[in-house]
């Protein structure tokens, strides 16, 4: 068995309380049976759960991440906000940034760029989401949009070891629709070429895919070259569905 699919990342969004630890425990029981040191199973949970889950899962293979953070590094008068230093000290190792739901709530490319720089400074790995709307895809603007999101989001970012790019077409998130094989192959290859050109050398930034991944369609998705794993929203809120996705990558 080869373990090409390194990352299985859960994006719980606005879901979960302390009792939801049982979902993660069931996934942990399953991955303990897999003989791979390469797989990384990461649960990006609401900030209210980061500290508690990190403590409870300290001795497990599960990694806890957060779903967003403020762009400022220092403490300050920002009621209700949490910065990367705070999520890091609560136990998060990863953070999702640039998610389309946060972009829709007002995160600009510039804000995302500052969040990314702050997260890297605090030694977090960033799951940097990029993706186009359906209208943009129909207008053949996908590559232009992705290129701009990469240029602006990664402006002055040097430490690429701390970046995972998550390609998430917005029209695929929560809709049950995934891109066609050709479409996805072309887009992933565009992102790879863009990164190679931008950073002027071949490097090993991982690219993952997110958008309506489930146990059934993951069999199609694993046929795509250069995808190192998946960002999984809805299906990650069920231990069984999440485990079935991992299982189906290796059958
Ligand atoms: C997401 O929102 O990051 C995501 C991938 O969601 P879903 O799997 O539910 O489409």
Structure characteristics:
single chain, 251 residues, alpha/beta, TIM Barrel, 10 helices, 38% helix, 15% strand, globular, binds phosphoenolpyruvate
Summed up, what is this model?
By secondary structure, the chain is of the alpha/beta class. The chain is built from ten helices and eight strands. The protein is globular.
Low-confidence stretches: none
First CA to last CA: what distance?
9 Å
The ordered H/E elements are EHEHEHEHHEHHEHEHEH
Q: What is the count of β-strands?
A: 8
CATH architecture title: Alpha-Beta Barrel
Helix content: 25-40%
Content of β-strand: 15-25%
Treating each run of at least 4 consecutive H or I residues as one helix, how many helices?
10
User: Looking at the structure, what is the overall shape?
Assistant: globular
Q: Enter the CATH topology name.
A: TIM Barrel
The largest sheet, given as strand count, sense and whether it forms a barrel, is:
8 strands, parallel, barrel
**Structural class, from secondary structure content?**
alpha/beta
CATH-defined superfamily:
Aldolase class I
Radius of gyration over all CA atoms, rounded = 17 Å
> How many domain regions?
1
Q: Taking all residues together, what is the mean pLDDT? A: 95
Ligand types: phosphoenolpyruvate
Secondary structure topology:
Layout: E1 7-11, H1 21-31, E2 40-44, H2 47-56, E3 63-66, H3 84-90, E4 94-97, H4 100-104, H5 109-121, E5 125-130, H6 134-138, H7 142-153, E6 163-167, H8 181-198, E7 206-210, H9 218-221, E8 229-232, H10 239-249
Parallel strand pairs: 1-2, 1-8, 2-3, 3-4, 4-5, 5-6, 6-7, 7-8
Helix pairs in contact: 1-10, 7-8
The protein binds phosphoenolpyruvate.
Phosphoenolpyruvate (PEP) binds next to strand 8.
